[in-house]
Each structure stands twice: as C-alpha cells, then as structure tokens.
Amino acid sequence: MDTKSIINHELTLALSTFFEQYSQEQQSRLRSTLIAELQRMRLELEKCESNDSIEALTHQFVGIARYLQLKNTVPMANSCDQEQFKHQLNDLLNAVMDYVNER
Q1: Closest-CA residue to 92 (of 2, 33, 12)
Q2: How far apart are CA 75 and CA 49, in angstroms?
Q3: How many angstroms separate the CA atoms of 43 and 89, rounded?
Q4: Rounded-to-integer distance, Cα 53 and Cα 51, Å
Q5: Nearest by Cα to 79 from 61, 65, 95
Q6: What sign for the dihedral angle of Cα 62, 78, 94, 91?
Q7: To 5 degrees, how large is the angle CA 56–CA 88–CA 44?
Q8: Percentage helix, strand, coil, to 5, in the chain?
Q9: Are residues 82 and 41 in contact, defined by beta-carbon separation less than 8 angstroms?
Q10: For the CA atoms of 84, 86, 91, 97, what is the dihedral angle to 10 degrees?
Q11: Rounded to whole angstroms, how far apart are CA atoms 67 and 30?
Q12: What is the pTM of this model?
C-alpha cells in the first residue's frame, strides 16, 4: 500500500469509530454537517491568496480533526503551506464522502 492508501484506510477506520458512537439519525446529521463545513472551507481556501490568510482555516481544520478524534491519523500542522493544507482538507472531505457512500 502506498502512503495515500494507508492514510485513506486509517481515515475510514477513524471515521467509522467516531460515527458509530451515535444513532443512525445523529450520524446522518453529523455527516451532512461535516461535509458542508469541509466544502465551505475548501471554497474559502480557494479564495486565499497567501499562506498567511489560511491561518483561521487551518485552526478550524485542526478543531474538526480533534473533534473527530483524528489527531493520530491526520497530520495537523498549523504551519503547513496552502498546497499541503488543500491536500489534507480534500483527503478528509473525500474520506467522509466515501464513508457516506459506503453506508
């Protein structure tokens, strides 16, 4: 397995562990809210013109990753560059959307 496959697999396992704490109805609401928030962050990131302007977004992302108990799965560097952060954000969004599609 390559690194990206390993990260995606670990994300899926972590998301599964997180969501299984909740009822089906709560899981559905949490997934919808999470997808909407990550998509909003991605759109906002596309508008950013420099690494300095992504500080608030990276802070929000770290908060989401901690809430989802992904601190050991998602590299949460507050000082990453815009391109690296974009990949992290897209990886998490894709993992959540894949998780939803599998259910």
Answers
A1: 12
A2: 23
A3: 11
A4: 5
A5: 61
A6: negative
A7: 40
A8: 75, 0, 25
A9: no
A10: 170
A11: 12
A12: 0.85
Residue with tokens 């998490």: 92
The one-letter amino acid code at 57 reads L
CB 57 within 8 A of CB 9: no
Number of continuous H segments (helices) and E segments (strands) in the chain? 4, 0
pLDDT in tens, 11-33: 888 899 999 999 999 999 999 99
Note the pLDDT tens digit of each residue in 77-95.
Answer: 555 688 888 888 998 999 8
Q: Which of 44, 49, 83 is nearest to 60 (CA)?
A: 44
Q: Is 38 exposed, middle or buried (0-12, 13-18, 19+ CB in 10 A)?
A: buried
Q: First and final CA of the chain: distance in angstroms?
A: 24
What is the rounded CA–CA span in Å between residue 54 and residue 61? 10
